[in-house]
Write a structure and sequence with these properties.
This protein is α/β, with parallel strands linked by helices. The protein has 15 helices and six strands. The radius of gyration is 20 Å and the shape is globular. Bound molecules: alpha-ribazole-5'-phosphate and nicotinic acid. This is Nicotinate-nucleotide--dimethylbenzimidazole phosphoribosyltransferase.
């Protein structure tokens, strides 16, 4: 299905009201589950039901290389993208270990790793062998930006059609915090110093250089504001894996399933998704607050308030996994708790 042609349905307000009534009738003080109640109401609105089945879940990890890595913006050599993609399949990355612990399936999708990986377990959707260096030329063509969104959308559609009830997005791509920062700066009409952070932990000196690279890429791209077409941001200063994440977020929304965000890279992708389809955020579940510098700015722009703050900034989808035990707890509460009726009492606040 062409990602531009499916509408995004509004949330089911009646189911949300029913969920709040159900929560209020449980044998616990009213509102005492705090933000877990907000989460429950949100999910009821997505599922059109107060019965939550959150066990069938999948994390889609999009991997690609970034040409801007050649500008010395990362602490890590580019080959680590491919190495980590293989480690992911072997279960040895942060997200893979957490996914295993919290019972989440995981899939790695190659949308632009520079080298060809010899593994049948990686979904092959390579759009090109890494982006071009955004400091000197557009990161990709407009058609490739569209393709990146479509690949992510298709992966979400396929997962949902296979029966998954809950999706999470993650990524791998050395240099992609530079692309995400540039995308956020362009979409929010600000500059490098407002959004650039230390990514995979660069020195303060390298951070100054990274800000200059982002500002340089933005001035090369000379994007108009307001932007007539947000996809041009992806084309000019984006990343293939971030475009695919955007597509997966749009796909989850189009097929009416919740999508768990991860950290800064997923916020940048969600911001692009929101610029393309403002109501997509109805289906987006924020999970953790990334420690990356620009996070608060994007979260505020998105109006999202994540549930967890562990000061994590790994990426890969790892932060999204941290909310899974909470979702399990919520599901058990709804299924197993006594109600006031069972206990023969009513509240008199
Ligand atoms: C070993 C390793 C594992 C990672 N897993 C995720 N990232 C994270 O760091 C990368 C982005 O940071 P930057 O823009 O600074 O290169 C992405 O791959 C992101 O997923 C990792 C980074 C490293 C080094
Ligand atoms: O917020 C993130 O997900 C993040 C931040 C820095 C590096 N990698 C990922």
């Amino acid at each position: 299905m062409d990602w531009t042609s499916l509408p995004i349905e509004p949330l089911d307000k009646l189911a949300q009201t029913k969920m709040q009534t159900k929560l209020d009738q449980l044998a616990k003080p009213i509102n005492s589950l705090g933000r877990l109640e907000e989460l429950a109401d949100h999910l009821a609105g997505i599922y059109h039901s107060t019965e939550l089945d959150l066990q069938s879940r999948k994390c889609l990890v999009f991997a690609a290389d970034n040409g801007v890595a050649q500008e010395g913006v990362s602490a890590t050599p580019q080959k680590v993208t491919a190495i980590q993609a293989l480690n992911m399949l072997a279960g040895h990355t942060v997200v893979a270990t957490l996914a295993q612990t919290y019972h989440c399936d995981i899939q790695v999708i190659d949308v632009g790793i520079k080298s060809d990986l010899d593994s049948a377990a990686i979904v092959q959707k390579k759009i090109r062998c890494g982006t071009a260096d955004m400091l000197v030329q557009p990161a990709m063509t407009y058609a490739q930006a569209q393709q990146a969104i479509q690949v992510g959308f298709d992966q979400a559609q396929q997962a949902i059609e296979a029966g998954y009830q809950l999706l999470a997005v993650g990524e791998l791509g050395i240099g992609n915090t530079t692309a995400a920062s540039a995308m956020v700066a362009a979409l929010l009409h600000t500059n490098g110093s407002a959004v650039v952070g230390k990514g995979s932990n660069i020195s303060s000196q390298r951070l100054k250089h990274k800000i200059k690279v982002v500002d340089g890429a933005l001035s090369r791209a000379a994007l108009p504001f307001p932007l007539p077409d947000p996809l041009v941001v992806l084309q000019q200063v984006g990343a293939l894996e971030l475009g695919a994440m955007t597509g997966a977020i749009l796909g989850a929304a189009a097929y009416q399933k919740p999508v768990l965000l991860d950290g800064f890279l997923s916020y940048a992708s969600a911001l692009l998704a929101q610029k393309l389809r403002p109501t997509v955020l109805d289906y987006v579940i924020p999970t953790h607050i990334s420690h990356e510098q620009g996070s608060q700015l994007v979260l505020q722009a998105l109006g999202l308030k994540p549930y967890i703050d562990l000061e994590m900034c790994v990426g890969e989808g790892s932060g999204a996994m941290m909310i899974l035990p909470w979702l399990d707890g919520l599901q058990t509460i709804l299924q197993q708790m006594n109600t006031q009726i069972d206990m023969d009492f009513t509240y008199f606040p």
